């Protein structure tokens, strides 16, 4: 009886000790609030969370989901987030009203086919869009993708009938047979082609770096959480490198968070070009700045922005450890 009691007491003591240690460990982790939306290009976030990379860096990551990449920028500016997974075009749009308040500190990927123009089978190339109804998100980056396709094939926006829709609604409407063509993104591209309801006639693969998925921070984060941001990016980059070297393992880790099957994730990954630390630094010191200038000019032209945002200091690789 005494032996049993002692064993029970020892077990309870061990359990309490483990719980106390776990609590103490949690207390030492620094909170870092991150906004995101469910997108294949942000796979590194989900991998790092599953693998415990953030915890290894001493961070307590608190994730908040948004429906689109631009939605978390206002909370970021307001101090409710420390970082946000967004797109370069969304940041440039926000900077028009908040100059100097945001910077891009990491590029997770560039779309390389994950954004595209889907069309009915009888529409072979963008040249065949003349007089057709095309859904696109007016004033956003996928309109610029559409414009590039039209220009390449000798058309202008005036040659087609534009319907303003967000990418998800456009994909759903096209899949339902309501449109001649639609500018959309994954998973709609894979879904539509898999169901043989349409095909890709132009994609972001033909416009490198036009659609950049990035991590943005505010001036408040840059000043108050510099060390945490560097730790966050170390963990994130470790996960991105894993996804680059072993797509299948990455798919298995991230599928649940992306609400997809692992095999679907594997199929989608080639449609984004993931950037590791070295590529980030290279891109941010030149090519990305040029793309930023093009986006800034476009947003002024279509009257989304009041002026042309100065993008020369938007990309900042200083937080990336080499």
TrEMBL record:
What is its subcellular localisation? Periplasm
Heme in keyword set: no
Q: Which Gene3D superfamilies match?
A: Periplasmic binding protein-like II
Boundaries of every Solute-binding protein family 3/N-terminal domain copy = 31-252
Identify the InterPro entries for this entry. Answer: ABC_SsuA_sub-bd (IPR010067), Solute-binding_3/MltF_N (IPR001638), SsuA/THI5 (IPR015168)
What is a GO molecular function of this protein?
A: ATPase-coupled transmembrane transporter activity
Question: Mind telling me what this protein is named?
Answer: NitT/TauT family transport system substrate-binding protein
The signal peptide stretch is 1-26
What's this protein's family per the entry? Belongs to the bacterial solute-binding protein SsuA/TauA family.
Q: Which UniProt keywords apply?
A: Signal, Transport
Superkingdom classification of source: Bacteria
A GO cellular-component term linked to this record: periplasmic space
């Amino acid at each position: 009886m005494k032996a049993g009691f002692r064993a029970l007491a020892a077990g309870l003591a061990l359990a309490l000790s483990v719980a106390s240690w776990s609590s103490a460990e949690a207390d030492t982790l620094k909170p870092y609030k991150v906004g995101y939306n469910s997108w294949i290009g942000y796979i590194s976030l989900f991998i790092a969370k599953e693998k415990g990379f953030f915890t290894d860096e001493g961070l307590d990551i608190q994730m908040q989901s948004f429906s689109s990449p631009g939605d978390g920028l206002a909370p970021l500016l307001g101090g409710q987030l420390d970082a946000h997974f967004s797109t370069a075009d969304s940041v440039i749009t926000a900077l028009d009203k908040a100059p100097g308040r945001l910077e891009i500190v990491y590029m997770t990927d560039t779309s390389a086919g994950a954004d595209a123009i889907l069309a009915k089978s009888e529409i072979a190339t963008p040249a065949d869009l003349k007089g057709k109804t095309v859904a696109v998100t007016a004033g956003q980056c996928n309109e610029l993708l559409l414009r590039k396709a039209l220009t390449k094939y000798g058309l202008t926006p005036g040659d087609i009938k534009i319907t303003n829709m967000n990418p998800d609604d456009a994909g759903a409407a096209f899949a339902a047979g309501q449109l001649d063509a639609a500018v959309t993104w994954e998973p709609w591209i894979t879904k539509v082609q898999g169901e043989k309801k349409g095909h890709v006639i132009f994609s972001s693969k033909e416009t490198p770096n036009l659609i950049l998925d990035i991590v943005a921070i505010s001036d408040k984060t840059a000043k108050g959480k510099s060390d945490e941001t560097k730790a966050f990016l170390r963990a994130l980059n470790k996960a991105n490198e894993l996804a680059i070297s072993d797509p299948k393992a990455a798919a298995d880790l991230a599928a649940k968070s992306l609400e997809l099957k692992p095999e679907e994730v594997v199929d989608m990954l080639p449609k984004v070009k993931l950037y590791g630390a070295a590529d980030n630094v290279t891109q941010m010191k030149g090519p990305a700045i040029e793309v930023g200038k093009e986006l800034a000019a476009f947003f002024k032209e279509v009257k989304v922005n009041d002026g042309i945002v100065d993008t020369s200091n938007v990309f900042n690789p200083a937080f990336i450890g080499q």
